[in-house]
Amino acid sequence: METYLIPVEDICAYHHVEINFIRSLEDFGLIHTTIKKQSVFLPIDELSKLEQYLRLAQDLEINLEGIHAVSHLLNQVQDLQDKITFLQNELNYYKQLNQH
Amino acid sequence: MDYIDYYKILDLKKDASTEDIKKAYRKLARKHHPDLNPNNEEANKKFQQINEANEVLSDPEKRKKYDKYGKDWQHADQLDAQEQQRRQYQSQGGGYGGNSYSGGFGGEDFSDFFSSMFGGGGGRSSKNSPFKGQDYNADLQLNLLDAYTTHKQTLTVNGKQVRITIPAGVENGQKIKLPGYGAPGVNNGPPGDLFIKFNITDDPKFKRKGNDIYIQEEVDLYTAVLGGEKIVETLNGKVKLKIPEGTQPDTTLRLKGKGFPVYKKDNQFGDLYIKWQVKIPTNLNTEQKELFEKLSKF
Questions:
Q1: Can you tell me the ipTM of this complex?
Q2: What GO CC terms are in its UniProt record (chain B) (predicted)?
Q3: CB contact under 8 A, A55 and B35
Q4: Which residues have a Cβ under 8 Å from the Cβ of B18 and sit 6 or more positions away?
C-alpha cells in the first residue's frame, strides 16, 4: 500500500513553524521524513506525532530535549497501559475459571 | 449556568499581574495538558477550564469585563449590555469557534458562562490558523463470536453513519484508529480521527487467554474408564474427539490451531484447550451399587 506523503514545506506554512524544528525532531529520532525529487515529505502516519510535538512546544514551551524525554515517557505509559489491558484480560480469565 | 471563578481555577489573587497569570497557566497546563494525560477525561476537563481561565485573564479587555460583571452576570441590565457587546464582538470576527488542540476539546466546549459573557468559543493565539478537527472516541461492544471473524459493522458516531471493518482477533480493551472520521477541521484543517475501543463480553463456554481458547467438557465415568468418543463444539464447528481409556479427571487436551485467530495475521490461530471433567454417577440403584462394590474388590 502506498503511503500518502505531505510536503514538509506545506506543514511549516500550515502550522507556522520553522523547518529547522522539523529537522531537529528528525535528528532526535522523533519523526521520519522522506526525500523525493529533492523535496522533503512527511508520511501521513507521522502527522499526529508531529502535531503532538508542536503542541508540546507551543502550548507548554517544552524544548526539544524535553519533548524527547516526554515522548519516551509517553511511550512507556502506552506500553504499561497495554500491559494492564493484557493482565486485566488474563485476570478475567482466571476469575471466570473460579466462577465455573 | 454557574459563575466560574477564573482566578480560583488558576489559583491566583485578583490583583495578579500578567506575568503571574502566564506562570500559573503554564504550571497548570504542564500538569493537565491532554497530550501528557492520554485517555484521561478528568485532565482533559481540567485543561479546558485552565485554558478558558487563561483565555479571559490573559486578555486585558476580557479580564476587565470579567472583573466588572463576572459575579453579577445574571443582572438583567448588565446582561443586555453584554449582549450588545457580544454582537459587536462577533461582527468584528471575534466569535472564533475553533480549537488548537485536536486531541480532546473544541471551541464549543467553552463553558456557557464564557459564551454568555464573550460570545462564541474561545480561540487561542493563532485565531485563523487551520487546525485538525477534534478526535472522537467510541466504545463498541462485541461478543466473543463477533470478535472471532472479520466483519463489517455500521456505527453511528455524532449522528454520522460510519461503516467499519472489524478484523478478527481483536482483544478486549483494544483501540483502533480510523483516520479522518473525527470532527471536521477548523479553517480548512484536516478532520480529526475516530478511536474505537472494543469491549468484548465474556462467553459462558469459551474462555479466551490471548489467542488460546479454554473449555471444559464433561465426560461420563464409563467413557473415561473404558475410552470412547465425544463430539465437542469449537468456535468453528463441531469436532469428534477420541477419549483414551483411563482418562483422568482434569486431563487437558490441546487442539492446535483451533483457538482464536491472531489479529491481522491471515490463517494463524491460537490453540484450543479442552479440560475433561469426569462426571461421577449419582443416585445409583442397588444393582449398580453392587457392581461398583464388586469392582472395588478387584
A1: 0.76
A2: cytoplasm
A3: yes
A4: B58, B60
CATH 3.30.360.10 given to domain B208-296: no
Q: What share of chain A is helix, strand, coil (3-state, %, to 5)?
A: 70, 10, 20
Q: In chain B, which among 160-179 make CB contacts under 8 A with chain A?
A: 171-174, 179
Assigned CATH class of B136-201:
mainly beta
Contact between chains at B38 and A77 (C-beta distance less than 8 A): yes
Closest by Cα among A40, A7, A59, A27 to B30: A59
pLDDT digits (tens), chain B, 298 positions: 678 899 999 999 999 999 999 999 989 988 988 888 877 778 888 988 998 899 889 999 888 888 887 665 545 455 555 555 555 544 433 322 233 333 333 344 566 666 666 665 544 444 455 566 777 888 899 999 999 999 998 888 777 888 889 999 999 999 888 888 888 876 677 788 888 999 999 999 999 999 999 999 999 999 999 999 999 999 989 999 999 999 999 999 999 999 999 999 989 999 999 999 999 999 999 999 999 999 999 8
pTM: 0.59
- Domain that residue A87 falls in: 5-99
A59–B29 CB contact, under 8 Å: yes
Fold designation for B6-118? Helix Hairpins (1.10.287)
